[in-house]
Aspartate aminotransferase family protein (Fluviispira sanaruensis), 443 residues
Amino acid sequence: MHPRKQTDKLLSRLQKVECPDTTFFAERFPIVMKRGSGMWVRDVDDNRYLDFTACFAVLALGHRPKTSIHAMRKQAASLLHGMGDVHPTLPKIKLLELLADLSPYANAKSLLGQSGGDAIESAMKTSMLVTGRSRFLSFSGGYHGLQFAPLVLNDRTDFTQGFESWISGKTFILPFPYFKGDISFDNLTDDFLQQEHKLENPDKVLQLLEEQLKKKEYAALVMEPIQGRGGKRGFSSEFVKQCKDLCAKYGTLLVFDEIYTGFGRTGKMFAYEHYNVIPDLLCVGKAMGGGLPISACIGEVLDVWGKSKGEARQTQTFLGNPIACAVAYETVTVIQKNLPLFQKELIKIDDVFAKFIHAMNENNLMKKFPFEIRGKGFMRGIWFYKQNEGFSVPLMERLLEAGYLILPEGPRADVLSLTPPLIAKAEHFEKILNALVLELKKI
């Protein structure tokens, strides 16, 4: 077992001063992070861990990348803070130009924020201005932030409990569809998928969607192209196309929450490229900031806000912070430049997953722990769909003891999430997947 003397002392101090609904505590969880470099993290007891979270998929270039450090130092030497909606700074202008160039829109505008929830709130308000409507649609299992506006898109009672009066009537939550073409679903019945996992036939979901859209009450359908905390589950291209067509037919905007999936995470710059569908609004964040808090809502329909007459209607004190913008500009530029190299490595990583499946079969673990590998690129999830709810939580704790940072996900916490920095190599995936086989053999 890893030594935890300093960790336990510090966690005891934390529990005395932090809101009790913030940090999850178990017998040997969490660690207190002290220093990171590339793919690796050390805690206050000097234990070393291979990071397969990228700190919630934020650190696309790894811990303490030279890109972020150099950009921070250079910008800090001239200006620490600006005036987001009054006197602009050069880093803000450069970043907005870059986002416009990378976006799928001919005349893109962006509204900056500090968190993913800010970007979603901007998209929701924009959708209301465009359509004159005030209700929203989202998918079960989606995670779009916990501020009051994005909270209404959420169907997880552990997030919404106590706030039902605020949420009531504002959103219709669509069941998440299953796609029976998936290999692991061949022997699973519709009843099992519906009752155990609350999944629904995609045709039924589209029928429900159209029934709601016909009411012409909805400003936007907000969806993640691949769900992050929902367990790395995605859609078929045809399904997404039909969602787009139905929204257009009934005057509802389509918003893609790419806060998790954007900037190379899925093997493409943005996940919408996998579906060949362009949303009306694109929300980005996480990896964009290189470790600093910044996000953006991007689209052509942002023109609906009109020109400010002295008071911006969607702003905040730290909007367009020059250090965050400078780091974001350099980070996104480096990701764009290196994306072909990341894509090349993914071919080798796919081979490692094939070896993992072989090892699971060889060790007679496939029948005991049947699974499906979900997601794309550097955003994968191993879904143990026949295990009890919460199965991946103790597995996460076992892997932490073995020297790996990893998270459980999905509505039932039965998905093991693999979202390392984009600098991850096939050998890193091999290490953690081999460790996973060893841990499963012990169960």
